[in-house]
Amino acid sequence: MASKNVSSPFLQGTTLKTTDGWIAARKLCTAPTQQIADEIESKGLANWLDTQLAPESIQESAQYESERAALFPSVFTAREAGRTRDRVYVENYQKKTSSPYDIATYVIEAALHRMWGSRKQLQNVMALFWADLIASNIDKAPDGYHDYIPTLYDGALGRYKDLLWDLVNTQTISMFLDNHTNTRYALNENLGREIMELYSWGTEKGYTQEDVVAAATLMTGFRGDVTTYGSGADPMYHAFGPVTLAGKTFTNGGSTAQDMYATLRELTDYLAGDRLTGLRISRKLIQYFIGDELNTEALAQKLTDIYVQNDTDIRPVVRALVLAPEFMQSAGHTARRPWSIFCSLMASGQLTLKGKVSFDTTTSLHNALYKMWRMLFESGGGVPFNSPATDGYPLDPRAWMSSAHYSGINKFSRFVNYIDTWDGSDPSKFTLWSQPIIWSQALGITPDTTSLNEAAKILFTKLSGYEPDEALIEALVLYASNRSPEAVLGQSAGATLSQAVTEEQIKRMIEASLTSPLLMLA
């Protein structure tokens, strides 16, 4: 692949060398790898994109299917006409794992595995995008995560009006925004406000407090589906009768749960189909994939036209965005979130999980990936699908380009390098759940033959997609050879660079690579 020079507003005066395949992979994948970048170059971006836009047609690898069936069987149950996924989990799997927080954590662990193991990479990225738009977290609303996250995935590349409808009916969103306490006797306006401000129009619509009350009134008596789909509406607590919202009058008639759902669907379709909703989503997609550095308002208006013309279908919107010239022009203008770097390492190292989860106790439920989850939660800026605020994680890349995130990312090396030693004799020792990564095999480096210099080039390029300059190569070699600067200065630098690399030195280079800000740039 031919490399090209790009620049980043976050590294002033630095010229970066990368490829078109890697530019696209970093932006469109939760676990970009050299293999995916090569595939994009080989197929062409448009062809690769069209495949990703139809995730239902993508065949997953046998390894991934085997791992998720063994470790996360409850998370991938099909949506039934009757029971919610959460109810399926409770009735089919739950024994002693009754804590909603523990169960929600387990579902997020399954999502992490999906983010690096699944071939449906764009679906991953879009599920995370929607999780920022219609956010929740497990501290306040852990209930229903078996429905919340799969719903984000199911609707990630569909019509937004369907996704909005499905999410508003989840127990998770109802609890996160307190709609389970919203009744005709005592209004709770939280969801009524956020469904306009965050989920649809935004503040540009100029809605009033009366409109907030109107939206809340239309959603009285809804608590989210708990046991079965269509079970979250209670006519006893719904305020029936005409309601006017932003100039539109909803009949809001009848007296049954079915009548309530008809009104709610009318509301969500009305909000999702508005042009201002399309414009707000388009601008957020641009910020998510392209950043803030380019003049993109004309593109936002074009994407909004496509959104409205296609009845809120997001696929043609994403396709037009990715194939717009601004997409490639924005190389280095956005930031990867720490969990994407983590997932890239797992995918690049071809991590193989083993074992089978037990639902007998919370401890055994978390053995597989819980320590990864905790490390991301405490040191990596957070975990996916667990937003710190009602408006999700920040889209501004500057919020992620910080020394705190660099130091947290460096801790990823304990999983990718020392699976066989770091956890001691603990019952949840990661070797019980994984084969150690052999980095020389995964990266195509031959120990005791490939030079330190060449190994550093190969390793950094395949992990980041950026070609390292000579200073970075020397820094990686210095760290890998475990020599002090004084010792290196006392001998020929060429002699050190030309020495053959060992497997342990490859691990140390990976550890050093994780301190480079280049890994954050997309």
TrEMBL record:
Pfam families in the record: DUF1800
InterPro entries (alphabetical): DUF1800 (IPR014917)
Protein name: DUF1800 domain-containing protein
Organism, scientific name: Rothia nasimurium
